[in-house]
Amino acid sequence: MANYNRPPKNNGIINNIFNPQDYSVNVSSNDLLQQSLTTIQSSGSLQKSATYSSSHIYNYTNGLIYTLATNSTVMTTVSFINVPIYPQQSFVFKFILTPTPASSPYYLKPNTNFISINGTSYPLYGLSNISLPASYTILVQQITLINISTNFTPNFIALTSVLGH
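Above: the chain's sequence. Below: its structure in token form.
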């Protein structure tokens, strides 16, 4: 179960700047899967179908949730375009993947472990920590793009997680 503290207030007004240290979050992997599936269900109209191929391009202006069937095709590039460069903002792309055959670890993983954000290459962290159950028919992958810059010169970090269901 996730536990979220109240947002901090400054002079009686809710602070509108997100600071991770302002929140204490305890989330299990089952909670993450349930949250992912619930979010997907509640925003079904935002889902976009995509094709699994060697080169992937995801456009921020087309939405943040994608569905696609996956297979053994070797992936060379994953690119995100038109991502806003607002300082200290994050964007979470969600992918609902149906691997063929079932229980196959086919998710978004470029062979270089780098992705492109608005034409600049960044490492994708979290790929070495993925642990999947023995059998599953659906994978839910999140790729979070975080602009850690304090000005409008972007400096992104990219994190991923994959859950099997």
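Residues 20-29, 36-45 have pLDDT under 50 and may be disordered.
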